[in-house]
């Protein structure tokens, strides 16, 4: 089959095939090198619709399901935005950000944008959306799963701020979904994973007023590198410090075991407002949590903090990531974390404070199933050790309350049962049948 000959004219000019010079720059995401038969680099909604119809047509004439991936930012830890032998629809050039109403904070964002670029557009309007810790992550992939951002305790999940979206179904139709239109689909696209292709989101951003020195969207960022001998004791003290702070503080730890028997703990503490006495008092206390090797505290623009470096995708990060969500870091859980750090297969363990605003929405608000959790734990290792890592982390993860779907490389159905509650899973499966009756979206969680 010559796939190029079958393509409609609207898609020919955006097609990249293996012999093209451009192929190497579009075949991969940041975790995996793909070998697709065809990549379509859409710049408008018509091309997205035509691609969906083309995939459905190919499935029909070939009488099989062709692997079909959708890629926005290419940072999906589930690695499903690339495939081998199939079609990748890349929408990264469909990336405009439009301020609809700066007073209300209403912002229309095309799904191919990356969060660092979104922050640059919003900042002059004193607006921000808490989205993630890295500017290159995509709006599309993050906004269908959750979005644990640097201001999550104060602002909640990214998906909690979506007020409408445009969806291309598996039959190539475009639907506007919000509270009044297709409210079941609107519920599902906010946390339920891939139910069709979301081409744009309408968000309600929040205000961060410019400070008296003219700094736009000012926040206080504190980075500390601790050299810790007793990691158990450190995590307990850190948990107490966060619990005794206000939700204006969100704190993330990245723990690495070193050969010298010490752990290097990289803490990133984010105060989600301009510098104040209150901020200084709380951030100063973090300096008492353990011996410090390096420390840097600065007031800067949120847009500068998450500026996107736009690193090209070459499948460079050969990582495998698992995670869990929990209400309390009990002694037992902390001991299991410490135990894992002793395994050579585990490279790093990340612990993030969540809770706060995330806990204030009901379980039925959107398709995020875990509204009572306060801590997020992610375990990082090499993709070559995926099976070993799954075995090693099970004793810890089995004690936790759930999983964040956007941060797990495990796409098994067992993992899905930890991401979504049984009732949510049933609702999502029904929605998938409704929006994609022929099952063309084969590469998804
Ligand atoms: C370095 C790094 C840092 C991260 N930090 C955070 C963080 O701080 N907080 C957080 O919550 N997450 C974080 N993540 C996880 C990341 O947000 C998710 O994995 C997210 O899915 C990536 O979205 P993407 O568009 O970049 O990825 P992609 O690889 O393009 O897509 C991921 C998945 O979503 C699907 N998809 C993409 N776009 C669409 C669309 N428009 N419509 C329907 N389906 C779509 C894809 O098919 C794929 O299955 C991080 C990931 C990395 C690699």
From TrEMBL:
The keyword Flavoprotein applies. PROSITE patterns: FAD_PCMH (PS51387). Pfam families: FAD_binding_4 (PF01565). Residues 32-208 form the FAD-binding PCMH-type domain. Keywords: FAD, Flavoprotein, Oxidoreductase. SUPFAM superfamilies: FAD-binding/transporter-associated domain-like (SSF56176). Belongs to the oxygen-dependent FAD-linked oxidoreductase family. This is FAD FMN-containing dehydrogenase. It comes from Liquorilactobacillus satsumensis DSM 16230 = JCM 12392.
């Amino acid at each position: 089959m010559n796939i190029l000959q079958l393509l409609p004219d609207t898609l020919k000019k955006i097609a990249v095939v293996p012999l093209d010079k451009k192929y190497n720059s579009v075949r991969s995401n940041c975790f995996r090198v793909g070998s697709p038969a065809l990549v379509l680099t859409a710049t408008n909604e018509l091309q997205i619709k035509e691609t969906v119809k083309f995939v459905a047509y190919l499935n029909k004439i070939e009488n099989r399901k062709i692997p079909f991936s959708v890629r926005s930012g290419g940072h999906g830890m589930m690695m499903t935005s690339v495939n081998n032998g199939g079609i990748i629809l890349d929408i990264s050039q469909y990336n405009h950000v439009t301020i609809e109403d700066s007073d209300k904070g209403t912002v229309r964002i095309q799904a191919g944008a990356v969060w660092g670029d979104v922050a640059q557009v919003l900042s002059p309007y004193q607006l921000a959306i808490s989205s993630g810790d890295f500017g290159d992550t995509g709006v599309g992939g993050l906004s269908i799963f959750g979005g644990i951002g640097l201001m999550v305790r104060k602002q909640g999940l990214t998906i909690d701020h979506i007020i409408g979206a445009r969806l291309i179904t598996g039959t190539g139709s475009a639907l506007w979904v919000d509270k009044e239109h297709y409210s079941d689909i609107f519920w599902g696209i906010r946390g339920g994973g891939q139910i069709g292709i979301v081409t744009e989101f309408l968000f309600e951003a929040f205000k961060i007023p410019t400070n008296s020195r003219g700094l736009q969207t000012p926040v206080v960022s504190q980075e500390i590198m601790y050299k810790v001998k007793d990691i158990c004791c450190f995590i307990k003290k850190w948990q107490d410090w966060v619990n005794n702070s206000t939700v204006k503080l969100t704190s993330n730890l990245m723990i690495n075991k070193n050969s010298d028997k010490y752990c290097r703990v990289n803490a990133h503490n984010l105060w989600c407002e301009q510098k104040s006495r209150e901020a200084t008092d709380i951030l100063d206390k973090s300096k008492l949590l353990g011996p410090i090797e390096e420390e840097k505290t600065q007031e800067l623009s949120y847009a500068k903090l998450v500026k996107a470096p736009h690193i090209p995708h070459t499948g460079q990060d050969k990582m495998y990531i698992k995670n869990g969500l929990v209400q309390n870091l009990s002694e037992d859980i902390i001991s299991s974390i410490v135990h894992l750090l002793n395994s050579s297969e585990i490279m790093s363990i990340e612990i993030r404070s969540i809770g706060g605003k995330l806990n204030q929405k009901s379980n039925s608000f959107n398709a995020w199933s875990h509204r009572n959790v306060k801590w997020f734990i992610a375990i990082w290792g090499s993709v070559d050790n995926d099976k070993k890592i799954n075995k090693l982390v099970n004793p810890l993860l089995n004690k936790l309350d759930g999983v964040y779907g956007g941060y797990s490389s495990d796409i098994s159905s067992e993992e899905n049962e930890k991401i979504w509650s049984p009732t949510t899973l049933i609702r999502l499966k029904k929605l998938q049948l409704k929006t994609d009756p022929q099952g063309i979206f084969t590469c998804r969680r």
